[in-house]
Design a protein that fits this description.
Number of domains: 1
Low-confidence stretches: 113-143, 161-168
Strand order of the largest sheet: 1-2-3
Number of helices: 5
Strand content: 5-15%
Largest sheet: 3 strands, parallel
Structural class: alpha/beta
Radius of gyration: 16 Å
């Protein structure tokens, strides 16, 4: 299987928290702060377009489109279902629909056992606990050749007993 993307793609809470601070982002979610909302929309647009270009360039060879979202801690969610529905659900629905148009299943890395995404996309919602970040991704305009090279490399790695094979 060929997977494109990383747990850091989309990742509207954790990644934006690196710029604004984790506590600030959680308050931004509650307050619907306009700066956070602008960053959220810009981040969505960037990753949506990057993944779409990769799926186009892959010409049906990408099996799984992967993104991530840090929705919780080890003991429970960081946000309410209502906040998820209002701010994130439509974005992920659009992303899942786009990936499916190119024949890819979708996977989302989450750190939360009670997954909000099951209602949005049943093609393949799951967790990758390790190794997912080992899949490089390329999002620039000339992604086509890089994606094809990566697909060839991953096919080589998927041979039985290859030292580059990621094993769960």
């Amino acid at each position: 299987m060929i997977c494109f993307g990383t747990p850091g793609d989309m990742d509207f809470i954790n990644s934006i928290g690196r710029a604004r601070g984790s506590e600030k982002v959680l308050m931004d979610l509650v307050d619907r702060h306009p700066v956070y909302l602008e960053l959220l929309n810009a981040r969505f647009k960037f990753y949506y377009e990057m993944h779409e270009r990769a799926l186009q360039a892959g010409e049906g060879l990408i099996d799984i489109a992967q993104v991530g979202e840090d929705l919780g801690t080890q003991i429970g969610p960081m946000i309410s279902h209502d906040i998820f529905e209002e701010l994130f659900a439509q974005k992920y629905e659009a992303y899942f629909a786009m990936a499916h148009r190119y024949g890819a299943k979708t996977m989302i890395y989450v750190r939360l056992r009670r997954v909000f995404f099951a209602e949005l996309d049943r093609s393949w919602t799951g967790y990758f606990r390790r190794g997912a970040a080992d899949y490089p991704c390329y999002g620039h305009r000339r992604a086509g050749e890089k994606v094809r090279q990566q697909i060839d490399f991953l096919r080589q790695c998927l041979r039985p007993n290859h030292p580059g094979l990621w094993q769960a």
